Structure formats: C-alpha cells, structure tokens
Amino acid sequence: MKKxxxxxxxxxxxxxxxxxxxxxxxxxxxxxxxxLVLLELAPVDPRSLMQGDYMALRYKISxxxxxxxxxxxxxxxxxxxxxxxxxxxxxxxxxxxxxxxEHLIEYQSSDVWNVTIGAESFFFEEGQAEKYEMxxxxxxxxxxxxxxxxxxxxxEDLKIIx
Length: 162
What we know:
Layout: H1 2-33, E1 35-42, E2 47-48, E3 52-56, E4 58-59, E5 73-80, E6 86-92, E7 102-111, E8 114-117, E9 121-123, H2 129-132, E10 137-142, E11 148-154
Antiparallel strand pairs: 1-4, 1-10, 2-3, 3-9, 5-6, 5-7, 7-8, 10-11
C-alpha cells in the first residue's frame, strides 16, 4: 500500500508541474504574440501597508455601466484609436461576433458596480510611487480569446514608465 501512495503523490506532482509549465508557456506566448492595448486608468489609492507599494488599477472603460445587465463572465469589445488607446464598443457573452479592428478583453462581474477587466493591481519597488503617480494608461497584451496580461503602465505621451 505504501508503494501506491508514493506513486500517487509523484503522479500528482508531475501533473502539477506540467500544468504550471503549460501556464507559463501560454503567458510567454501572449507576451510575444499579443496585441498591445492601452486602457485609460481611473484614479485609485496607490498604497497598501500590508503588501508594500502597489497601484490598484481601475479602467475607465468599466466606468459608467449604469443599469447594463451584464453576464457574470464575458468579453469587453474594444476598438483602438489611432494612438492605440482602447475605446469600449460593447460587452458580449461570446467570443463572436467581432467586426474589423475590434479586440476582446475577458471580464468578470460580481455585480453592476464591480466589473474586473484585466489586471487589478501593479506592484513596484518601494520608494518608486512618485514615478507611477503620473500613469495615465495600463498597457495590456491581449490574444484572440480575450486573455490579457498587464505589461506596464504608460504616461500621457504613451511611453512606458520604467
């Protein structure tokens, strides 16, 4: 019986390792192949005493939803202007239909007032808060399935803050 116990543990560890490596590979592919979309930020308090310095992110495209009846999960369809800044077109439950030049960003909603689009926080080194206070855009990479990955914050001149 002991032999089987160790085999089950080893099998579970191997499955966990395969899953972790697959997840990392997907994120790396998204970083390399994803479309850069800039989302305008809405102001939020940038500090947490428990977690160190970070900026809680809220995006303007999730503001003013009013009485829209949104499904719990779905996609925010955006179209980028000439400078690469996303403008909300609509929310939809399925991947399709999409018109030319539209991109998907997956969202989750717990209620009308709490819609999560992309990453919700950006962590930075202690003492670097002043540098990120002027951030105007969150830069995310998105793929065709609506998966997104925050790659950095951008200033009003659309340059990444480093």
